[in-house]
Every structure is written in C-alpha cells, then in structure tokens.
Amino acid sequence: MSKKKASRTDPLSLNLPCVGVETHAHLDMADFAPDLKAVLAEARAAGVARIGNVFLGPEALEKSRGLFDAHPEVFFILGVHPHEAKDFAADTPERLRAAFAGEPRLAALGEIGLDFFWDHSPRERQAQVFRAQLLLARDLDLPVVVHSRDALEETFAILDKAGFAGRRLLWHCFGGGPKLARRILDRGWHVSIPGPVTYRRAEALREAVRIVPLERMVIETDCPYLAPEPWRGKRNRPALLAFVAAAVAEVKGLPVAEVWARCAETARAFFGL
After folding, report:
1. What residues contact residue 77 under an 8 Å CB cut-off, 6+ apart?
2. Residue 120's pLDDT is what?
3. Rounded CA separation 148/154 (Å)
4. Is residue 8 part of a domain?
5. Per the domain annotation, does 9 fall within a domain?
6. Does pTM surpass 0.90?
7. Shortest CA distance to 106 belongs to which of 172, 49, 58?
8. In this structure, what CATH number is given to the domain that contains residue 123?
C-alpha cells in the first residue's frame, strides 16, 4: 500500500495583495534553471511584487543578470560572500565599483560578512574582505546586507570599528533572540526575518520578532534554502514568502496583509526601490 502524500498549503491561498517584497533570493543558482519563469510567475500570483536577487560576486552578475532582462520586478544585490573571500583579487573592488556604476538595478552591497561555521575561506581573509567591502559601501553610500554565522562578536567588532552605526545595514537571515535583535536595533540597523520563524523550535526568533518594529523589519526566503513550514525540507522559492509573513503576523497579532504591506514598505525604503 503506497503512502499518502502530505498535503501542503498553497501560498496563493493566503490571497495577499501584489505588494510584497522578497528581499533575498538566489534565483541565478542551478536549482532554478529548469523553471525560473514559472517560479517568477508563481511569486507574482502569490503577491510578491519585487524580488532582490543576490549575486555572489562580479562573475555571477556578469554571467547571469541576463536571466532577468524580461523581469523588471527583480532588483539586484551584489557582493563577495565570505565563502568566496579566498578568491577576492586585487581588482575585485574596482570590478564591484564598476558594476554599481553601470548597472542601475543594483540596490545594495551584499551579502558580505563572516562565516565561521563552514570556514570555506580562512577567517582572517574573510575579515579582510569584509572590511574592504565596507569601505567601498561607505565610499559609494550603499546599503549593506550582512551575513554572520558563528562569528557574532567578530562581526560587530568590524562593523563598529568601521563606523557603521546609523548607516543603512540589513542583518540577513536573522536567527537570534531578543538580545541580539536589540543590539542590532540600537545601532540603527534593520532585521531580515527568514523561513525558520515558522519552525516549532524557533521560539527565541519569535521572541525577537515581537520586539522588532515593522519599520525596521523585512522578510526573506534565502531561497533555495530554508523553506518555511509547511514546505520545510523542499526547495524554497519566493512565493513561500507568504508563510514568513503569516508567522510574523501571528506573533504580532496583526492581519497578514498588514505585515505583508508594511514589511514591503520598509524594504522599498531601505533599498530605494
């Protein structure tokens, strides 16, 4: 006797207006090569009006930005991820500078930072590359999207020394509790809430959501990773952003449509959309 397939809620069933902003997606990755057009169409049907695609370095931008020529709803984020810090060359800052000068769809520098969980690049090299890109962001007056994993104090130390308090900075894929949220908010920064806010054991993250005002909060999928419930374990995609909004709305005791619209307003202001 065959097993009955688990029923998964369709994100379109939330009936959200088409104003949402997905702030962090990796749609240029091979995971989306077979059905990118369908993924983008589903996102719009689910109420996602704008999508931020993150290119992990100048080569990725040059190779794949053409994927979105027919999709003006997609804006771009560009930076050298800490995993690729080992490959950061002497001319990389100038290549980044040229990209921002020549590509009007680029809205922020990121995701940049430190990742001491995987250690795909030497830690000191990660720190050097992080500092170099922060200098570029200051020089070009760009918003910054930060990645920090198992490197919390080192990340804060670098940002504080670089004088980033009060500058436009988004803490990507926030996974901490209220204490970390307050440290970020106290510096004038923004918080991006991902799919794990829906996970049963993520109570600390939901406690943080309670104290982060919607004026400082955006939502993201980080697709193809970290799919929210009820799609956990499957490929994540922008349409599933609806479930992140629903979880935030439940925590805050607000209508989902209100959270959807207000987080979108925050994202538009942060990225200058």
Report:
1. 24, 52, 53, 54, 55, 106, 107, 108, 109, 110, 111, 145
2. 79
3. 9
4. no
5. no
6. yes
7. 58
8. 3.20.20.140
Q: Based on the structure, what is the number of domains in the chain?
A: 1
pLDDT for position 2: 42
Q: Domain range spanning residue 82?
A: 15-271
146/54 Cα distance (integer angstroms):
12
- What's the pLDDT score for residue 121? 83
Least Cα distance to 76 among 99, 105, 100 occurs for: 105
The backbone region for 10, taken as left when phi is positive above 0, alpha when psi lies in -120 to 50, beta otherwise, is: beta
In a domain, 182, yes or no: yes
Residue type, 202: A
Distance CA 171, CA 110 (A): 10
Sorted by sequence, the CB contacts under 8 Å of residue 99 that are 6+ apart come out as 58, 61, 78, 106
Q: How far is CA 26 from the centre of its chain?
A: 9
In 3D, which of 133, 72, 131, 66 has the Cα closest to residue 100?
Answer: 133
In a domain, 1, yes or no: no
Q: Which residues of 195-212 are buried (b: 16+ CB within 10 A; e: fewer)?
A: bbbbeeebeebbebbeeb
Strand order in the sheet with 74-78: 20-25, 48-55, 74-78, 106-115, 144-149, 169-171, 190-193, 217-219
Separation CA 105–CA 131 (nearest Å): 24
Q: Is the pLDDT of residue 85 over 70?
A: yes
Tens digits of per-residue pLDDT, 216-230?
999 999 999 999 999
